[in-house]
Amino acid sequence: MSAPCAPPCALDRLGRGIASAFARRAGGASKRLVVTSGGCAAFVAGWVEGTLHRVPLGRSIPFALGLSQSLPDHDVFVFLGDGEAAGVGGHHLSNAARRGDRVRALIVNNEVLGGTGGFPSPTTPRGGRTAFQPAGSAPRAFDVAELARAAGAAWVGRETVTAGTALAELLDEFVGAPPFAVLEVRAPCYPAYGQWNGFPTPEEMHEALERRALRGGGRAAGGRTEAESPDPDRFRVGKLWPARESAT
Amino acid sequence: MKLLLGNEAIAHGAVAGGVTFFAGYPLAQSSEIDAALLASLAHREGATALVEDSAAAIGAALGAGAGGGLGATALSGEALGAAEELLRFGMAQRLPALVAVVGSRPDPSLGVERAGQSEVRRLHMTVPGGGPAPVWAPASSQECFTLAKAAAVEARERATPVLLYVDDVIAHLREPVAAPEPDGGIHGEEAPAPAVLYRTRDATVLVVAFGIVARAARSAVRLAREQGVRAGLFRPVRLWPFPFAELEEAAARARALLVVELNEGQLLESIAARMGAARAESTRRAASRSRPAREPQTTRALSEPSAGILRPGTILESLLEVA
Question: The dihedral of CA A99, A100, A102, A107: what is its sign?
């Protein structure tokens, strides 16, 4: 199974990665439910085994809430795009985190409403150019992982789609994380975003994304922290919550 | 026997009918349904959730249905718009859910609760180009209980969202209800009659009304009979799909139909179209002055879009006029 835009956007890596993480987790596909509503996140669901529900745009989280109530012995996942997670379903995300819904949310953040062909999403960086806003997006970007953490999510992580082993390890932790759990995967879209922002190839776009990632986490690991690098364009990756300091 | 608000009776009927999950976005008109369902399902962990909007509420209820349970939620008429996309989704995917809608008046009520039946047309249009979701319209607390229970059973058996549509008066009348406790026997019961008839056998003037309006209309029919007018009442209990066959049978001897409703004439539109009588006419307050376009039947509207309620005397006046 593959997505129509798999080679440039690398979502196939995320699809294979989450499928592998599912395969390693006990329980099996018969006890797994995945809800999607649209966006490129829905493509990722094409790689996984389990019962798939496709619902109207923006409503996968409340649907998953009802599903998890009726099937308490199942793992319920939602795959969201950034448009749903930060826009049309943003209040569902924050309230699910607040309530502690028995749901785990995989957010595929490509920093653009890719399916529209190039409108900015709530996570498009300030100044980021898109096909239909070539002068750049004026508002600042939503940090969805930070939003979920602030709203009370029990587990929050973030990685880039090109992170390889680091992504695989975080996916392994995410599929068994205490709900409400949120994993944001940065997976920039080349056709709708990258090519408009000066990247000659998808590979160079991905390399630039990796340079924005603050890897290494907390002070114990000796890495840079957000406090030390206030650049809004940078973002921390890895397990963001619960903080490692509090876990030890 | 218990004294229950119509809204409370809906909640008790829903539980008796097998509802396993309640997702609520509390709204003033329907909040007693939410409160009673929260209380009734409190003993089961995770059986209730208060969510952030009406779309989330119906989405969660449908999710429960997709997982093999039965979800319920309650809305006011104003919130129906936010829930409609999910309702259509539930129809298309054949997902069960019980959805109670407390009707509103046509102008935005802005928090002021007044009786209205403004969603008649809208509930008919649940599925664009297709049929409506099943809608029941109770006219008493007892019927709120009975129909909520029947609707829950129907939702499960037919795998569809089923709606209960009440006006604000029925929702908030406190009346005796028999057997409001869950009795376990939710299957194999007879489905409720799609319409209730009152003195229609020899009626030459037939009033059509549902909800609280039907109760005022019943008095008007009785008063008209005292004046020698052979009046009758046809009360649809199943609002959609509308019981046209039953109406046609009840109207066999009628020379005139008077459709009375708390809106600008929405039910009249469908009835006029089906019965091939007078053209539908929107009116305010008074009966339509239009003469029938074709004989033999006159179809008229007595509509009350804004003042909140229609009294028997007003209905009687129109009834005598068309008789």
Answer: positive
CB B20 to CB A61 under 8 A? no
Cβ of B63 within 8 Å of Cβ of A56? The answer is no
Helix, strand, coil share of chain B (percent; to 5): 40, 20, 40
Of B23, B55, B85, the CB nearest to A66: B23
Residues of A in contact with B62 (CB under 8 A): 55, 63, 66
pLDDT tens, B129-180?
566 889 999 999 999 999 999 999 999 999 999 999 999 999 999 999 997 5
Three-state DSSP class for residue B152: helix
* Domains in chain B with CATH codes: 2-177 (3.40.50.970), 195-322 (3.40.50.920)
CB atoms within 10 A of CB B248: 11
Backbone angles phi, psi at B289, to 5 degrees: -90, -5
Does residue B188 come out as left (phi exceeding 0), alpha (psi in the -120 to 50 range) or beta?
left
Question: What CA–CA distance (Å, rounded) separates A193 from A203?
Answer: 13
Q: What domains are there in chain A, each with its CATH number?
A: 6-247 (3.40.50.970)
| Residue B63 to residue A66, Cβ atoms within 8 A | yes
Whether the model clears a pTM of 0.95, i.e. scores above it, the answer is no
Chain B contact present for A165, CB below 8 A:
no
B186 Cβ neighbours under 8 A, 6+ residues apart: B16, B17, B18, B149, B152, B153
Interface contacts A/B by beta carbons within 8 Å: 94
B80-131 pLDDT per residue, tens: 888 889 999 999 899 999 999 998 765 665 555 567 888 998 888 776 656 6
Q: What ipTM did this prediction achieve?
A: 0.87
Cα–chain-centroid distance for residue A111? 10
Q: Does A59 touch chain B (CB under 8 A)?
A: yes
d(CA B27, CA B75): 7
Q: In this complex, do A99 and B59 lie within 8 Å of one another by their Cβ atoms?
A: no
Q: Does the beta carbon of A99 lie under 8 angstroms from any beta carbon of chain B? A: yes
